[in-house]
Amino acid sequence: MATCETRTVPFVLVGAGGVGAALLEAIVGARALHKARYGIRFSALAVCDSSAAVSGADAAGGLSDAEIAALIAHKASGGKLASQSGAVVRPAEQDASVFLESLVDKYSKEAPDTIVVDCSATDATVPALLKAATTANMRAASANKKPFADSSFRNFRELCLAPTSPARVRYESSVGAGLPVIAALARVVSAHDAVTLISGSFSGTLGYAGESFSAVVGKAKELGYTEPDPRDDLGGVDVARKALILARTLGMALELSDVVVEPLYTPELAELSVPDFLAALPTLDAAFAAKVAAAAAEGKVLRYAANVRPPAADGTGGGSLKVGLVAVPASSPLGTLSGSDNLVEIYSQWYAATPLVLRGAGAGAGTTAAGVLSDMVELANTRG
Ligand SMILES: NC(=O)c1ccc[n+]([C@@H]2O[C@H](COP(=O)([O-])OP(=O)(O)OC[C@H]3O[C@@H](n4cnc5c(N)ncnc54)[C@H](OP(=O)(O)O)[C@@H]3O)[C@@H](O)[C@H]2O)c1
C-alpha cells in the first residue's frame, strides 16, 4: 500500500463513562487502520467528565495512548477527572454548559479543526455543540440524544438541518447505537424520496415476547437490560426521544412535548417505590395477555414501537409521532423482532411495499462507541 502523510485530527471528548471509555479504547485500537486507510490519527486534546477537563502533558499533541489508558482505568475505578494532575476543574458555582462552551471556544482558537464529541448524558452540551456546528472548520459527533431531542427544534435545525450540517454534525449513535439509521434516512431524504412512515422498536426491554408482562420485565431487569428503575424504559420517553430525532431529521418541527407517549404501566403505578412497582407488575398481566390474544387472533403480535408519520406530500394531514403498543403482522419485520435487537422500518415512495429495514444490536457501550467512531472518521474525511 502506498504510504501517505498522516494527518492529525484533534478532538475533545465530553463524557468519559461507558461509551466515552469504549470510544477512547476503539480509537487507540484503530490507529493502524486509520493511518493506513485514511491517513489520519485522532488526537484527544481534552477529555471531560462532570467534574473537570484533562489534557495531555504535551498539550499540542493531545493525550498519549498511555495517558488515555490511565484515564480509562481511573474512570473505571470510579474516579473523577478533577483528581487528575493538571485537570482544569469546573468551579462549583459555574454552570456545566458555560464550562463546556468556554472549553470549546478555547479549542476553536487553538485547534480550529477540532471535533467535539459528546458521549455524556446531559443537555448541558447544547451551547458547546452549537458552537462547534457554527464555527468554521469545527465539527461535532454525538451519542447523546438529549441535545437533539430535549432541546428546541430551533437548535436542532441549527445543528442538523443547515446546508453545512452533513459535513459538520453527526448524531448517528443517538438513535440506534451502532445501527446506521440516520445515515440511511439521510440518503432517502437526499433523493427526494418522500417518507410516509418510520416505524421502530428501539428497546428490547420493551419488546413483548409472549411471556407474562411482569416476567419479561423482571427478567430484563435481572439481566441488567433496564435502567435501575424500569419505569425509565417502560415510560417510553427514551423511545420518544429517538423517534423525535428521526422525525426532526425529516424536517418535522416537533418538540418532545408533541410526542404522544403511551407508557407501559398504569398511572397508579407511577408513584410507587421500585420494589413496590416490581411487586405490583403482575396486576398488569391479565390486561396484556388479553391484548396479546386479541392481536394473535388477527395473526398479529404486539410491539412497543414509535410511529413517525410525516405530513402528506400534498400538505394534507399534519403528521404525527406516537409511541405505544401496536399490533403488527407476525410476519412483518417488526413482528419477527426478538431479543434485545433494535429495528427500524422506513417506508417511502420507493420503499412502499417493502420497507428499508435496519436491524441489529441497538445498545451497548461498544457498539455505540463504534457508531461514534464511524461518525468521526466521516467528519475527518469530509471537508465542510
Ligand atoms: N450505553 C449505551 O448502550 C448507549 C446506547 C446509545 C446511546 N447512548 C448514549 O451515550 C451517552 C453516554 O452513555 P454512557 O452509558 O456512557 O453513560 P455514563 O456511563 O453515565 O457516562 C456519562 C458520562 O458523562 C459525563 N458527564 C455528565 N455530565 C457532564 C458534564 N456536564 N460535562 C462533562 N461530562 C459530563 C459523566 O461524568 P461523571 O463520570 O463525572 O459522572 C460520565 O463520564 C448517553 O447520552 C447515552 O444515552 C448509550
Automatic annotation (TrEMBL):
<dbReference type="InterPro" id="IPR019811">
    <property type="entry name" value="HDH_CS"/>
</dbReference>
<keyword id="KW-0486">Methionine biosynthesis</keyword>
<keyword id="KW-0791">Threonine biosynthesis</keyword>
<comment type="pathway">
    <text>Amino-acid biosynthesis; L-threonine biosynthesis; L-threonine from L-aspartate: step 3/5.</text>
</comment>
<keyword id="KW-0560">Oxidoreductase</keyword>
<dbReference type="GO" id="GO:0004412">
    <property type="term" value="F:homoserine dehydrogenase activity"/>
</dbReference>
<comment type="similarity">
    <text>Belongs to the homoserine dehydrogenase family.</text>
</comment>
<dbReference type="Pfam" id="PF00742">
    <property type="entry name" value="Homoserine_dh"/>
</dbReference>
<keyword id="KW-0472">Membrane</keyword>
<dbReference type="InterPro" id="IPR011147">
    <property type="entry name" value="Bifunc_Aspkin/hSer_DH"/>
</dbReference>
<feature type="domain" description="Homoserine dehydrogenase catalytic">
    <location>
        <begin position="180"/>
        <end position="377"/>
    </location>
</feature>
<dbReference type="GO" id="GO:0009086">
    <property type="term" value="P:methionine biosynthetic process"/>
</dbReference>
<keyword id="KW-1133">Transmembrane helix</keyword>
<keyword id="KW-0812">Transmembrane</keyword>
<dbReference type="InterPro" id="IPR036291">
    <property type="entry name" value="NAD(P)-bd_dom_sf"/>
</dbReference>
<protein>
    <recommendedName>
        <fullName>Homoserine dehydrogenase</fullName>
        <ecNumber>1.1.1.3</ecNumber>
    </recommendedName>
</protein>
<dbReference type="GO" id="GO:0009088">
    <property type="term" value="P:threonine biosynthetic process"/>
</dbReference>
<comment type="pathway">
    <text>Amino-acid biosynthesis; L-methionine biosynthesis via de novo pathway; L-homoserine from L-aspartate: step 3/3.</text>
</comment>
<keyword id="KW-0028">Amino-acid biosynthesis</keyword>
<feature type="transmembrane region" description="Helical">
    <location>
        <begin position="12"/>
        <end position="33"/>
    </location>
</feature>
<dbReference type="InterPro" id="IPR001342">
    <property type="entry name" value="HDH_cat"/>
</dbReference>
<keyword id="KW-0521">NADP</keyword>
